[in-house]
UniProtKB/TrEMBL annotation:
Protein name: Glycosyl transferase family 1
Taxonomy of the source species: Bacteria, Bacillati, Actinomycetota, Actinomycetes, Nakamurellales
One MF annotation (Gene Ontology) recorded for this entry: glycosyltransferase activity
One Pfam family matching this protein: Glyco_trans_1_4
Record keyword Glycosyltransferase present: yes
Length: 469
């Protein structure tokens, strides 16, 4: 019921050229301190998917740097079933303040949840010993805490989702999860207001997610590489004659697969202004709202195109609603007038190879004139910081952890009401003006430098000290 995922070691020293000597030296001292504290203990991170979500994207880099610092950091993925993922998706939606599919969280749902976790716990007997540290990510894995604690494992729960306000849905989700809290040594949230009242403040550490500036998703790409990758995938017009190999910083990455596209006519010209949102096909990411807002309030501008890009829906095991959400976007796209439909492109990106997917997203964000993240609710929204790192102006909803990334009017533009499609269109039109987008993009890149791995791992050092006493 669990799958071990290989994690390559990454030398933290390679960040020196990006973060500078002072931060690099401090990072090295912190790493030595943590390595001595942990000794020969295992630190195992567990989540519910190896691809297609923000956690799956962050873990290889975070754990890779930890391994490079000498920590025995490992990664395992929980192998659930449809009933289990239906319950955990419901929890995910409710923690964001949404009713989701409208289902309940009572006896049968807890039984479905705990059956999978009981089997997974048996798998971990050979992986973890007393004194080791388990970092459980999000609601899918929290139910493992009692079984791990009984074996003497130190447990950290890292919750990436939540809401800055409470309602009946958030209360119901927290009530489902609360019985497991007593078995957790330390809680980690992305935003302080995500922590529920049932968790003592002195047991909480706030750690914003980080991006790896040298990973395939964020490393520098030449204009030619961007053009070739997008042309090969069918996301802009052009021909490369075959697969594209990306060289430069880091190992080479081959882009062989193409995106699955829904569009009318050819893809955008390579020099067309692009409005881009890259998200999971999830109702709370509001891809439909982006589509409608663009069609009604932006598409009348000359040459501008919208690309809505998400993962291939067959490649994300823990999201049973993705196919239906993609279909809703397609149905809405079909209702658009012909001339506006031709400006909207829906793209399912390949996820079979993690680095290939990352390079495609990297190229798409770098090609964007404006990047949007018009979520109705959001955990942290690392796609915002990723686009900012690339110097892109971002229009995003003022929800969840997004306002902690963007200084409104300086390093991006915040939409106070995510349902305000006219307001969304107005902000996008502002960012299409090069006189506005240039200064915002430069400020965005500077702001994103505060979301890099060295600062995140320094915060994790305080968690390790806390759980080890």
């Amino acid at each position: 019921m669990t799958q071990r995922i290989s994690v390559a070691s990454i030398d933290p020293e390679r960040l020196r050229g990006v973060i500078g000597d002072e931060r690099a030296d401090r990072f090295g001292a912190t790493a030595q301190d943590v390595r001595q504290a942990i000794g020969d203990r295992v630190v195992l991170s567990m989540n519910s998917t190896a691809s297609g979500g923000g956690v799956a994207e962050m873990l290889p880099q975070m754990l890779g740097y930890a391994r490079g610092a000498g920590v025995d950091a490992r990664w395992s993925v929980l192998d659930g079933n449809p009933d289990f993922f239906a319950v955990t998706k419901r929890l995910h939606n409710m923690l964001h303040g949404s009713a989701g599919d409208g289902g309940s969280l009572h006896g049968p749902e807890r039984d479905a949840y705990e059956r999978v976790l009981a089997d997974a716990s048996a798998d971990l007997d050979a992986e973890l010993a007393a004194g080791d540290i388990a970092v459980l990510h999000d609601p899918q894995t929290l139910g493992l805490a009692p079984r791990l604690r009984r074996r003497g494992v130190r447990v950290v729960w890292r919750c990436h989702v939540g809401s800055t306000t409470t309602d009946e849905h958030t209360e119901q989700a927290w009530q489902f999860l609360e019985p497991y809290f007593d078995h957790v040594d330390r809680f980690v949230f992305s935003v302080e207001t995500f922590a529920p009242g049932a968790v003592a403040a002195d047991e909480v550490t706030i750690i914003p997610p980080s991006l790896d500036p040298l990973a395939a998703k964020n490393r520098p790409l030449s204009d030619g590489d961007v053009r070739d990758v997008l042309a090969h995938c069918g996301l802009v017009q052009g021909s490369t004659g075959g697969p594209v190999r990306i060289r430069g910083d880091g190992p080479p990455v081959d882009v062989r697969r193409r995106a699955d596209l829904v569009q009318l006519g050819p893809p955008p010209p390579p020099d067309a202004p692009l409005v881009v949102q890259v998200s999971r096909w999830d109702r709370l990411k509001d891809m439909e709202g982006v589509l409608q807002g663009f069609a009604d309030h932006v598409a009348d501008l000359d040459d501008v195109h919208l690309v809505l890009a998400g993962p291939n829906v067959s490649g994300v095991a823990d999201d049973p609603e993705a196919t239906a959400e993609l279909q809703r976007c397609i149905d809405l796209w079909r209702t658009l007038p012909h001339e506006r439909r031709a400006r909207v492109h829906l793209a399912c990106l390949p996820v079979a190879d993690r680095d290939e997917n990352a390079v495609i997203v990297n190229a798409l964000q770098r090609a964007a004139t404006v990047v949007t993240q018009k979520s109705l609710a959001e955990g942290f929204g690392l796609t915002v910081a990723e686009a900012m790192w690339k110097g892109r102006p971002v229009v995003a909803s003022a929800v969840g952890g997004i306002p902690s990334q963007i200084d409104d009017g300086d390093s991006g533009l915040l939409l106070q009401d995510p349902t305000d499609l006219a307001g969304f269109g107005h902000l996008v039109r502002r960012c299409l003006d090069t006189g506005v987008s240039g200064p915002i993009g430069r400020a965005a890149a500077d702001r994103a430098s505060t979301f890099l791995p060295d600062l995140q791992l320094e915060r994790w050092a305080s968690v390790v000290r806390a759980v080890l006493g």
